[in-house]
């Protein structure tokens, strides 16, 4: 099993991909440690602030020593140059809000899993041409589970992960899995700004346990 397959397997086994960005590198690391203690082994750190690259590098160095079995990916990658920079910083996988051929090429050249964001059947088709094994349905809160249920038969075997608006509620998560997704992306509904600013690690730990449990019950 190559590295791309290992990362994909980790995301599928987990059934949930937490994603967040925070300006403080130390807090960012503690957020990942908290989720790790709850059972998370794959995390997406998003490229949404000027500190993202330096934070990412810092976190990867710490993870190599303390939690070497964590796969840390980078999200919100829109250009080949961004992809190159974060691969050099140690990114295990690349997530995009769009389908971009330069990002796809960088991921392929480095043997990294690439997860492009799609909103239409045409975008999904294009992403498949660029060898996307896992496709992010984004923004999921706008499209909803009915969208997945409607298009999944057009793309047999394609793996989908919705991101945006997935709630830590049994009914919501179950509905997404019934629609045909293989995992759910969880951002601010799990790692809210309040959790980050107030360092609510115990709350995050408990919410992560609950989310992982609901996912396993829904798969």
Write down the overall mean pLDDT.
Answer: 97
Under CATH at level 1, the class stands as: Alpha Beta
The CATH architecture designation is: Alpha-Beta Barrel
Strand order of the largest sheet: 3-2-1-9
Q: Return the domain count.
A: 1
Distinct helical segment count: 11
Major sheet: 4 strands, parallel
Principal-axes geometry comes out as: globular
CATH topology (level 3) name: TIM Barrel
End-to-end CA span: 23 Å
Measured as a percent range, the helix fraction is 40-55%
GO molecular function: (4S)-4-hydroxy-2-oxoglutarate aldolase activity; 2-dehydro-3-deoxy-phosphogluconate aldolase activity
Enzyme class: lyase
Pfam families: Aldolase
EC number: 4.1.2.14, 4.1.3.42
Would you mind describing this structure in some detail?
Pathway: Carbohydrate acid metabolism. This is 2-dehydro-3-deoxyphosphogluconate aldolase/(4S)-4-hydroxy-2-oxoglutarate aldolase. Belongs to the KHG/KDPG aldolase family. Its EC number is 4.1.2.14, 4.1.3.42. With 219 residues, the chain is α/β, with parallel strands linked by helices. The chain is built from eleven helices and nine strands. It has a single domain (3-218), classed as TIM Barrel (Alpha-Beta Barrel). It has helices at 3-14, 25-37, 52-66, 80-88, 101-109, 121-129, 140-143, 145-151, 170-179, 193-198, 201-218, and strands at residues 16-20, 42-46, 71-75, 93-95, 113-115, 117-118, 134-137, 159-162, 184-186. The protein has a four-stranded parallel β-sheet with strand order 3-2-1-9, sandwiched between helices.
């Amino acid at each position: 099993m190559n590295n791309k397959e290992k990362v994909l397997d980790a995301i599928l086994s987990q059934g949930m991909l937490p994603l967040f960005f925070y300006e403080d590198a130390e807090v960012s690391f503690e957020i990942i440690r908290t989720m790790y203690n709850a059972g998370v082994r794959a995390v997406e750190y998003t490229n949404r602030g000027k500190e993202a690259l330096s934070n990412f590098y810092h976190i990867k160095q710490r993870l190599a020593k303390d939690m070497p079995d964590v796969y840390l990916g980078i999200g919100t990658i829109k250009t080949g140059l961004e992809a190159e920079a974060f691969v050099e910083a140690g990114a295990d996988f690349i997530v995009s809000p769009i389908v971009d051929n330069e990002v796809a090429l960088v991921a392929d050249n480095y043997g990294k899993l690439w997860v492009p964001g799609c909103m239409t059947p045409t975008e999904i088709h294009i992403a498949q041409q660029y060898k996307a094994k896992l496709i992010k349905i984004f923004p999921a809160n706008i499209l909803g589970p009915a969208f997945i249920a409607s298009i999944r038969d057009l793309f047999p075997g394609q793996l989908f992960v919705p991101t945006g608006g997935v709630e830590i509620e049994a009914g919501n998560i179950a509905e997404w899995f019934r629609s045909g997704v293989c995992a759910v992306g969880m951002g601010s509904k799990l790692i809210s700004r309040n959790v980050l600013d107030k360092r609510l690690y115990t709350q995050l730990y408990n919410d992560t346990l609950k989310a992982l449990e609901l996912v396993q019950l829904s798969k």
